[in-house]
Amino acid sequence: MSSSFTVSSAPDARAEFLGLLADAMADGSLTRLVLARHVGADQTLQRIIAKPVLIKGEPCLQLVYRHQTRDITRNLPLPQAQALAAELLPTSFRNAHLFTGAGEVQLEFSKKGKPMIRRHLAQQAPREAAAGGHDREKKRYLELSRPFLRDLGVTDAQGALIPSMSRKWKQINKFIEVFDHALAGAPVAANQVLRVADFGSGKGYLTFAMHDYLSNTLGRQAQVTGVELRPDMVELCNAAAMRLEHPGLVFECGDVRSVVPEAIEVMIALHACDIATDYAIHTGIRCNAAIIMCSPCCHKQVRPQLHSPGLLQPMLQYGLHLGQQAEMLTDSLRALYLEACGYETKVFEFISLEHTNKNKMILAVKRRQPQDNRVLLEKIDQLKAFYGVREHCLETLLRADGLIA
Q1: Cβ distance 48 to 89 under 8 Å?
Q2: Which comes out higher in pLDDT, residue 261 or 137?
Q3: DSSP of 370-405, one letter per residue?
């Protein structure tokens, strides 16, 4: 069965939602409850995230009150938790998300207090897949019902995918999938605020997706900054972030050279042209980022320096091959410098985010234990000498800061 999405609005939508919550508590199908869009007096409170727990054999809900700078945890018996949810909706929170094995039910209140329910059933694999077939549905890390997708034009008013945006939708999910696997192995604490910088954020598809995934799917506190040179895009994205009430998501006008954060846990730079990728990687390393994700583009610096070693001259006399060699060498050196700075690095093909053949991803995750990099730096020097490379921007930046010897 494919996923199913429905929207309904009725005066008793609130009572219907609370009834579904009570049923989920009673039959044990509740996995998570999120109360969002806080409108109460405490302006530091962002949301409440609740999950079922057993305390001394008694079923309870563990409620995490997520504030801007701290979390407060309360454990309540199910009847008290149910009564509290009824009390807080909609006087203190205008959104509620109920997650069960069957899918998600979302309760929204308009500015005038009108309730609306959205239902998104969980995707189920087709029968052929259950029997070992080859048509299994790919796991989606985001749901089409997320409001930011509608606001950015990925889905329509009913939450259905716009056909022309299907490729973008797959790309967004692929990006979040890569990030999710990287986060699982990154040296960050479960309760740590994740500071994310997305350089070259454009219209904000991935920036919104990152913030939404961290905040709503994983229930983590995140401060996400999109950095973009075009003022009109910055204005558009900031307006959307305010309209959609994404606390902790902001967009700034500039680039990787002008916007330099003091500390970040995640650095993203997709399709940064030529040495802009080097500046982005350098920023991630300098800020001791746990995860660095970049998709390089337009490799111009190394190619003019490249000389063809004797054995390779017949192959590299062709401009296309010379360009491919310069690209491979440039990105290999980037990956090796990341390794030398304490990262476990992978280079692989990634679905293009701008429908171009520039689909390479360099993914680096900080090692928990440092390693001796002297042998690796010697190998890098040998590789540069083999091709006659005199300067690599990332190396210059790292040496200037004393990040490599």
Answers
A1: no
A2: 261
A3: ----HHHHHHHHHHHHHHT----HHHHHHHHTTS--
Rounded Cα–Cα distance for residues 156 and 163 (Å)? 10
Whether the CB-CB separation of 353 and 270 falls below 8 Å is answered with yes
**d(Cα 385, Cα 378) in Å, to the nearest integer?**
11
Q: Can you give the pLDDT at residue 57?
A: 81
Query: For residue 50, which phi and psi values (nearest 5 degrees)?
Result: -120, 140
Residue range 255-284, pLDDT digits in tens: 988 888 889 999 999 888 889 999 999 999
The answer for residues whose C-beta is within 8 angstroms of residue 315's C-beta and 6 or more apart is 321
pLDDT for residue 127: 37
Measuring CA to CA, which residue among 18, 7, 23, 162 is closest to residue 86?
Answer: 18
Hey, what are 266's tokens?
A: 């995640």
Residues 322 and 306 sit within 8 Å (Cβ to Cβ): yes
Half-sphere exposure of 107 (CA within 13 A, CB side): 28
Strands 45-55 and 360-366: unpaired
- Local confidence band at 131 (pLDDT 50, 70, 90 cut-offs): very low
Characterize the bridge pairing of strands 45-55 and 58-67.
antiparallel
Q: What distance in Å separates the CA atoms of residue 21 and residue 83, rounded to the nearest whole number?
A: 11
- What's the token pair of residue 228? 């973009």
- The partner residues of 62 in beta bridges, in order of sequence, read 51, 75
